[in-house]
Design a protein that fits this description.
Largest sheet: 3 strands, antiparallel
Shape: globular
Number of helices: 7
Number of strands: 3
Distance between the termini: 30 Å
Structural class: alpha+beta
Length: 114
């Protein structure tokens, strides 16, 4: 996963499009191969990292970590760390993330109809 340099034309174009078009801003928040899949599994409620990893068998731990960080930065999920041994971390959808659930259901219906 590469980052776009903030000084690049591509970065400027992306920011301009996001500012002028709410749809593109929203799509950029959920872009990525795994984000909607993670949302799908989190719609049932809080899950630990290992539970997410086990429910998405083809994702690597590194990719899951990167996607969760991206989602947390976009405020789609909340990460809660419990101070215990071993360390326990749980993820859940935020109110913003839960707003995706009706759209996710529509996408699922659309995908089944193709």
């Amino acid at each position: 996963m590469t980052k776009i340099k903030k000084t690049s034309t591509n970065f400027e174009n992306k920011k301009t499009l996001e500012k002028d078009c709410a749809e593109i801003y929203a799509i950029n928040l959920i872009s990525g191969q795994w984000i909607l899949c993670i949302c799908y599994h989190l719609k049932k409620g809080r899950l630990r990292f290992s539970e997410l990893k086990n429910s998405i068998p083809n994702i690597t731990e590194r990719m899951l970590t990167l996607q969760l960080k991206k989602m947390e930065g976009s405020r789609l999920i909340r990460r809660e760390v419990y101070a215990q041994v071993p360390l326990r971390v749980e993820y859940e959808l935020t109110l913003l993330g839960k707003g995706l659930l009706p759209i996710l259901s529509q996408l699922e219906g659309w995908g089944r109809s193709i």
